[in-house]
């Protein structure tokens, strides 16, 4: 917890504003920066805020590059529940970011290993991620790095836990429709980001947030590795704040 800055906000909308401040500051100082993006319900207020700030002329995404954390294996980019589709609908279609400057792992790749290696190479060619946005799963996952006996390093294929499949079934017609595998940036990929902003809202995340930043660093709580990152800002609402 020594390096982590904590900003406690009243509600998800205020979280969106505070998190947007971090992006605005980066994009103003480095217009061609590389941002790492996340899906899930938590970042939605942030994306709304970023869209309205660009409309208001405060941010310009035209030179920004973005790399997403993860994608479901087996879903096409235009599948309603794919993370590519989520990003288009919740952010990319409403800002000036160039399509060729947004990357999301390819859920349909036949050679998954080669696709993962190319994903890492692309991020490296861009000069690495300047600011990585993270949510957190109830089991402590970041991206889709689930609890394991080690910290996976690079972008790779993962088997989703029952807890994650259960949490994500709300987006699908039935639990059987939730993909069982995904492609995710590794813990090493995430830790290589120069700056990390984690957003967490809701009382259901309080316990895992406590384990993450106030418990031991262990691959059983993948997000706990963030205690070793030198530049993490945790933005959480009062309901999720564990202290
Ligand atoms: P959520 O997902 O924001 O929808 O809770 C977070 C995550 O699973 O990483």
Describe this protein's structure.
The protein is α/β, with parallel strands linked by helices. The protein has one domain: Rossmann fold (3-Layer(aba) Sandwich), CATH 3.40.50.1360. It has seven helices and ten strands. A seven-stranded parallel β-sheet has the order 1-10-9-6-2-3-5, covered by helices on one side. Helix 7 links the parallel strand 9 and strand 10. Helix 1 packs across helix 2. The longest helix is centred in the N-terminal third of the chain and has 18 residues. The model has no long low-confidence stretch (mean pLDDT 96).
List keywords for this structure.
243 residues, alpha/beta, Rossmann fold, 7-stranded parallel sheet, globular, binds 2-phosphoglycolic acid
Short description:
The chain has 243 residues and is an alpha/beta fold.
Flag low-confidence runs: none
Overall form: globular
Provide a count of the helices: 7
CATH topology: Rossmann fold
Number of strands: 10
How many structurally independent domains? 1
Q: What structural category do the secondary elements indicate?
A: alpha/beta
What is the share of helical residues? 25-40%
């Amino acid at each position: 917890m020594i390096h982590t800055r904590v900003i406690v906000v009243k509600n998800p909308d205020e979280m969106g504003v505070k998190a947007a401040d971090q992006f605005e500051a980066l994009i103003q100082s480095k217009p061609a920066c590389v941002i790492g993006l996340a899906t899930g319900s938590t970042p939605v207020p942030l994306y709304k805020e970023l869209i309205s700030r660009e409309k208001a002329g405060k941010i310009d995404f035209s030179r920004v590059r973005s790399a997403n954390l993860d994608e479901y294996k087996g879903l096409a980019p235009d599948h309603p529940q794919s993370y590519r589709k989520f990003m288009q609908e919740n952010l990319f279609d409403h800002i000036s970011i160039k399509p060729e400057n947004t990357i999301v792992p390819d859920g349909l790749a036949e050679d998954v290993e080669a696709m993962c290696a190319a994903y890492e190479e692309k991020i490296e060619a861009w000069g690495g991620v300047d600011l990585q946005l993270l949510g957190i799963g109830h089991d402590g996952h970041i991206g889709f790095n689930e609890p394991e006996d080690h910290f996976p390093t690079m972008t790779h294929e993962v088997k989703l836990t029952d807890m994650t499949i259960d949490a994500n079934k709300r987006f699908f017609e039935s639990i059987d429709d939730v993909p069982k595998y995904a492609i995710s940036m590794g813990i090493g990929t995430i830790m290589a980001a120069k700056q990390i902003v984690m957003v967490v809202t809701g009382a259901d995340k309080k316990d895992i947030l406590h384990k993450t930043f106030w418990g031991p660093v262990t691959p059983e709580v993948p997000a706990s590795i963030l205690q070793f990152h030198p530049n993490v800002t945790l933005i959480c609402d009062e309901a999720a704040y564990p202290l």
